[in-house]
Give the backbone structure.
Amino acid sequence: MSGETNGIDLPMSGQPSLLEELPSRLDDMHELETSNTELSDANERLLAAMEELQSLNVALQSVNDALHGMNIELRGKLEGLRHTTVDVELMLNGVDVGAVLLNARLEVRNFNATAARFMALGTEDIGKSLGRVRHDLGSVPIMELCRQALVTGDPIERIFTASSGESIAFRAREVGLESADPGLMLTFTELRSTLPQWESELA
């Protein structure tokens, strides 16, 4: 019959034979092997990157734990400093001596509550020059005495009479601040004749 030869099917006219398709199939296999190799290399790089990220995560966790511990420690120290500051403020305000802290430029750095009895001081005066603060000490040259204490480094002590007639003991002495320049501590004490009263109470 036409198209048959001893029972063997012959390729139809116009269709490529297996031998003709073999080079193309070999090229496809080579491309697949190349792609597989590239994918394998990319997978290894991803695994290495994941290991590095895991190591970095462990390191960051350690740093975070250390920072957390440091934060707890600093908060404890801050709370202790807060209590100390409150205690010091209570002690300074509890004594019957006015205290004013000045920096090297003779600007008000701090003061206690008693100082307001001798000078018109308020929180708005912090950072203001002492020469701009009103006081009840008459014509006392406080600024000149403060400059002298800074220049010589020796304490300056004077007794003044306030406009109310009270005797005030004034003292300016150099103190060390955290900066390179020294500051001054001014103290004002009202002098009272209390010994006779004590004697009458003890009699």
